[in-house]
Amino acid sequence: MSSKLVIVADLQHFKLFRVKANPMKRESLECLLSSDSLDIHQKPSEKLSDRLGHCETAWGVQGGGENHNMAEEEERKRLHELSKQISEALQKYPHELCYFAAPKSINHKIIEALSPALQKNITQNLALDLTKTPTDEILGHFDK
User: Fold this and answer.
1) CA distances in angstroms from 19 to 81, 85, 132, listed in the order given
2) Which of 20, 39, 102, 113 has the most CB atoms around it within 10 Å of its CB?
3) Crossing angle of helices 104-113 and 70-92, rounded to 10°
4) How far apart are CA 7 and CA 86, in angstroms?
5) Which of 4, 27, 1, 17 is nearest to 97 (CA)?
6) Which CATH superfamily is domain 4-37+72-141 in?
7) Whole-model pTM?
């Protein structure tokens, strides 16, 4: 039986599974890696050193404490981390097939961040968030 990897991800979670078969040839998933991004759960005040509106300038005037597109920057940073994790996983674990699932809003961004060789490595790509799907149901979303 060929070796298969399944990757499910969203901005908070990354999970890598290997498809294994029992003696009855029934496929199941074995978790190889699972990680959560703790930065996503933090409040801006926990991430930044200056409190909103308490940043003094050289003239003693307080700054406005603008957001400066912090949410977009956090998403960009997390997408980069996810693409790096996927690249490392695909290179570390030998496989013949690779299935990938991520929410529609970020799926194409993650795929585009991968090298062309790794993009071709992904056999099936679903625009679904399967990170909270029970492990025994994930494989059913992909064609066999």
Assistant:
1) 24, 19, 18
2) 102
3) 60
4) 8
5) 4
6) eRF1 domain 2 (3.30.420.60)
7) 0.79
